[in-house]
Design a protein that fits this description.
single chain, about 230 residues, mainly alpha, 13 helices, globular, Branched-subunit amino acid permease, cell membrane, membrane
Amino acid sequence: MDIGGKADRAVVRDALGVGVAVGLSGFAFGVTSAGSGLTLLQTCALSLLVFTGASQFALVGALAAGGGPFTAAAGALFLGVRNAFYGLRLSQLLALPRAVRPFAAQWVIDETAAVALAQPTRRAARLGFVVTGLTLYLLWNLTTLLGALGAEAIGDTDAWGLDAAGPAVFLALLAPMLKSGTERAVAGLAVLLGLGLLPVLPAGVPVLLAALAAPAVLWADGRRRGRGDAR
């Protein structure tokens, strides 16, 4: 019985499933980006070079709301910082050759990290990382192009209700990550801060201030645990 081959096929199957499922949402990004005023070239460049969905949606969302480029970029950067922490863990797990690491870094995102970290061996982790990254990168960029072309063809995306596609996909990507009570509390407080400050602050700034939800909830959780230990 070829146990190793069977295990590899299972990793490839799971990696392809993640890559295809998430890669298709690049279409929504293409539509959203084109609808926010970015050109076809700018939209495709974001997917090719940035390649992290949450940051891309945050960037074009802030621009669409009237935010300045620096504010929009800052919000996207805040969301993208988590990938650096994934990279620290994956560098130890995958132990890729130095010459390959700069190229592999482009694929360090939520989905590739999740698939790689779920594997029992280094070989399986490498296979899962590569298959997920390759599938998602190719499909995300292809569907981004198709979405941007489609948005240009139909004209006003607001009239078709496609302006809601970006936020909807963003929430769909985020929801499965909220597993603990602390994570849900951070998300809830961030939503309250973002929506509450939206009418009184310039576009893009509420997103930045919503990032304060994480330290606030962690501080409150730490105090609660400290009181529990004191008893």
